[in-house]
Amino acid sequence: MAMFHKILIANRGEIACRVMTTARRLGIRTVAVHSDADADARHVAMADEAIRIGPAPVAESYLQGARIIEAALATGAEAIHPGYGFLSENADFAEAVASAGLVFIGPPPAAIRAMGLKDAAKERMAAAGVPVVPGYHGANQDPAFLAAEADRIGYPVLIKARAGGGGKGMRRVDSPAAFVEALEGAQREGMASFGDPVCLIEKFVPRPRHIEIQVFGDRHGHVVHLFERDCSLQRRHQKVIEEAPAPGMPDAVRAAMGQAAVEAACAIGYVGAGTVEFIADGSGPLREDGFWFMEMNTRLQVEHPVSEAITGLDFVELQLGIAAGAPLPVRQADLSIRGWAFEARLYAEDVARGFLPATGRLDHLRFPEATMFRPAPVRIDSGVRQGDVVSPWYDPMIAKVIVHGPTRAAALNMLSMALEDCQVTGAVTNRDFLVALSRHSGFARGDVDTGLIARDLDALLGESSPTPEVLALAALGALGVLRKTRGKDPWDCLTAWRHWTEARQYVALDTAEERIEAQVTDLGEGRFTVKTGTASVTLSALSQEDGTVRVVLEDRQFTAAVVVEPGRITVFADGRSHSLTLPDALAGARAEHAGGDTVIAPMPGLVRSVRSVAGAPVSRGDPLFVLEAMKMEHVLTAPRDGIVAEVLVVEGDQVTDGTLLLSLTPEKE
């Protein structure tokens, strides 16, 4: 069969751009679909054609399979690539695509159904001889029955929505007392994200490692695995940094795990790209009898670039060829591992506030020198541009930072440097957290498991207060006195000249905790003394052609970046970013929140549950609201003991960041 001439990508953002890049290289024209919120998005601009499919909510746009098929037919597309998420693992959609005379670039509907529900998938894998985690995977959803099953399995257990993925609908439970509430939360998330509240119960493996095997199958009966990825660095059951191959993986275990993945794919007649996910016992060295099947993702994975890097293959190109009827161009004996690769997910999220998703306009966005969507030592895959808005409607990923080096140590150093060179302002991000994680000593040793981040979170968050050097750079940026290295013009060095006195200027900077008054003395030729409180710093700070600032202190030199925007200064230095605001001198006294007397929405979201009423007594830490954002539930609690004065929202309300939800009676003096 000949290759396609035109395909439609039934997705948005980074993955849509990724598919378009390979399609364009192969001479295939592309059609984008978009919601109203994405009318000016990057993937729309990249496509040859674009079709509007509905309003911003995913249920009214990207989940509207019939509209997407209509768009494909109207534009003459021959096939539909679903990307990941949305309709990528929807067997009904895959069937509808085929019924319309189009090709679904993915596995057969029967394979999607076989792996779509975790309980049925595990029963099928057990029958095929693939090792499965002990647990209850049946249909009985009576809470008392499931609690009894959890007692039988033994705590701690994991409650998992059977249709779940991406950490949604998943709860770890350590004792019987917490089981029922955790079950209810998992069921709500399963229903909200997948339209299916049914959950299964599994034994929680101590010090678990999340290792997955990439597989590909064609329509001619060939199935291969493309080695493993370690995805153990997770927060709230969602992946943060992935790597390939897995550290400490013995050849015998790799062969056994790869063979199990191939057998799993063969058992369901798999075609296309897929990932078989295993949980492994990380309490000691990896063993051939120490891994168990978790689930199979019947689509391309977010972290597929690390496997592309170590195999030298373009997975989207493989997908397109297989969907067009071509056989796999490689056999297992042809495949080998080349070097080491890491991928870090740069998100708009507030790590210090429990990884809450964030929104905002990307006022300044700068990545390190890299390729985009193509293998290279440094690769950046991103679906956004400077000026784009991270909205509450979709996943808050900004970019995937991918590196490939000859060894694990070299690749990890490259990852740290690439992350340090990422600059984002306008939205809170996890950039500093990723830098700290890439420098974590245990991670560097390959001592990883899914609990590492939770155990060491305080150390990973690090010191948030800006140093005197950072405050000095912020003050210089605010005053606009940073300048380029002196050229041939002698007048360049006279910017600080004063008759009979030193040149001094003053500026106020606001951190999250306090206002800082800075006194800047210009010593000439790019040299300054900056006093902030009791600290005094004398430094040279000269802007470079690449936009960075070369800082020279008495005993050291380093490079920083100072981003100056209206009302805000952001300094990137030593792997951290510090954003300071410039107070408006005409604004008068700043309005203050009522502190412990209120509960305020920390991000945009849907009020899923209200747990209190006016007049009710509450204790500090009592759950008051369940707020759903990005399809994840977040529990908001009472800030202090008191009496509820007023509840200002009801279940089903859509709120914005900063919305007042509840007030307590004022504390008496």
In terms of topology, how is this protein built?
Blueprint: E1 6-9, H1 13-25, E2 29-35, H2 42-46, E3 49-54, H3 65-75, E4 79-81, H4 91-99, E5 103-104, H5 109-116, H6 118-127, E6 135-136, H7 143-153, E7 157-165, E8 168-173, H8 179-194, E9 199-203, E10 208-217, E11 223-235, E12 238-244, H9 251-267, E13 272-281, E14 291-297, H10 304-311, H11 315-323, E15 340-347, E16 349-350, E17 356-357, E18 360-361, E19 364-366, E20 378-381, E21 389-390, E22 397-405, H12 408-420, E23 423-425, H13 431-438, H14 441-445, H15 452-455, H16 457-461, H17 468-479, E24 483-484, E25 503-510, E26 515-524, E27 527-532, E28 535-543, E29 549-552, E30 557-565, E31 568-573, E32 576-581, E33 598-600, E34 605-610, E35 617-618, E36 623-629, E37 632-637, E38 642-647, E39 654-655, E40 660-664
Helix pairs in contact: 4-5, 12-13
Q: How would you describe the overall organization of this protein?
A:
By secondary structure, the protein is of the alpha+beta class. A hairpin with a 2-residue loop joins strand 11 (223-235) and strand 12 (238-244). 47% of the residues are buried. The N and C termini lie far apart (81 Å). It is globular, with a radius of gyration of 27 Å. The strands form 9 sheets. Strands 24, 25, 26, 27, 28, 29, 30, 31 and 32 form a 9-stranded mixed beta sheet that branches. It has an 8-stranded antiparallel beta sheet with strand order 14-13-10-11-12-15-22-20. The chain has a 5-stranded parallel beta sheet with strand order 3-2-1-4-5. The chain has 6 domains: 6-105, Rossmann fold, CATH 3.40.50; 134-203, Dna Ligase, domain 1; 205-338, 2-Layer Sandwich (D-amino Acid Aminotransferase, Chain A, domain 1), CATH 3.30.470.20; 345-462, ATP-grasp fold, B domain (D-amino Acid Aminotransferase, Chain A, domain 1), CATH 3.30.470.20; 468-581, Glycoprotein, Type 4 Pilin; 595-664, RNA polymerase II/Efflux pump adaptor protein, barrel-sandwich hybrid domain (OB fold (Dihydrolipoamide Acetyltransferase, E2P)). The longest helix has 17 residues, at 251-267. Helix 12 packs antiparallel against helix 13 (431-438). The protein is built from 17 helices and 40 strands.
